[in-house]
Amino acid sequence: MATFVLVPGAWKGSWAFEAVVPLLERAGHTVHALTLTGLRPDDDAATVASANLDTHADDVLRQLDRHHVTSVTLVGHSYAGMVIAAAADRAGGRVSRLVHLDAYVPSDGESCWSSTNEHFREVFAAGAAATGYSVRPPEGGDARRRHHPLASFLQTVRLTGAVTRVPRREFVYCSGWEDRTPFAGLHTRLRADPGWRVHSLPTGHDAMHEAPEGVAAILLGE
Asked: Where are the domains of the chain?
């Protein structure tokens, strides 16, 4: 049986995977859904202000340490593609599979800010205008979303190359929001890369809520 660590994207917590977790557990797997530092309900302003990409990668690594995981599937949605790449690069071979769920796939020296499109750079900048250190969620969407640490969008990832040695790397493209997605070019590039398995879902960005069965089927290898 596999161990899954599910990492939510910007503004979200572990609840983002609430419809997927029981499907994986029902299949007999161990599942840990995370809420990253700065997005927990009891995090104060200082915690939000100081949290960055390194902080979030460390959140994942602490989870592996806490549960003595030696072979894990890391799943990162959206922004969390940055997080799982950074964590896998530092995990000392404990990551057996990476799944970037409609998520960034960074190279060394890239950031979420540099990897996204102009639409989301405008969202980040406008959302941070009030505090200068946290980004409010875009209008609409789940009321549980919280302000996201700005530094985590801006910090560049440091990768040694170890992440490219993860045995199984996968990308899931959500094709139902092509007017705004920052991942169309990435989808095209990874489809041509023999080191990647590429899947597609006909959903908007929040595939975990729109098609939890489809997401679970991909994670289960069905």
From this structure: 3-219
Nearest to 102 by CA among 221, 218, 220, 222: 218
pTM across the whole model = 0.98
Alpha helices in the chain (DSSP H): 21-26, 45-50, 53-66, 80-90, 112-115, 118-127, 150-154, 184-191, 207-210, 212-219
Tens of pLDDT, residue by residue over 146-186, are 999 999 999 999 999 999 999 999 999 999 999 999 999 99
CATH architecture of 3-219: 3-Layer(aba) Sandwich (3.40)
Residues 197-214 pLDDT 10s: 999 999 999 999 999 999
Q: How far is CA 14 from the centre of its chain?
A: 11
User: In one letter, which amino acid is 113?
Assistant: W
Q: Torsion over CA of 34, 82, 177 and 116, rounded to 10 degrees?
A: 140
Distance CA 133, CA 167 (A): 37
Backbone Cα Rg of the chain = 16
**Any idea what the Cα angle at residue 3 is, between residues 99 and 173, rounded to 5°?**
15
